[in-house]
Design brief:
Blueprint: H1 3-8, H2 11-22, H3 26-32, E1 43-44, E2 55-57, E3 66-68, E4 76-77, H4 79-82
Length: about 80
């Protein structure tokens, strides 16, 4: 999609397009954006609060889903929330 096409869409449409394009690719996209994620099913350092063993990359629905046992709000989200 060209940049002029993005300009024609509302911001929410652009976000939807980005999320749709990123589905099934979050495990490689997040590190490319500077966000270290543990292997699926493992715990690691949280990129939000900095805790060393409380972040869990779930991604069962291919949206980059994650959860942190320490963060207050938000303590979970999707891949776009991390970038």
């Amino acid at each position: 999609m060209s940049s002029s096409k993005y300009m024609e869409n509302s911001p929410i449409d652009v976000i939807r397009t980005v999320k749709q394009s990123a589905m099934n690719h979050w495990q490689s996209l997040l590190p490319a954006c500077g966000v270290d994620v543990p292997a699926k099913g493992k715990h690691g350092a949280c990129p939000i609060c900095g805790g060393t063993d409380r972040f869990h990359f779930i991604d069962d629905n291919h949206h980059g889903d994650w959860h942190c046992r320490q963060c207050d709000q938000p303590n979970h989200g999707d891949g776009l929330d991390l970038v």
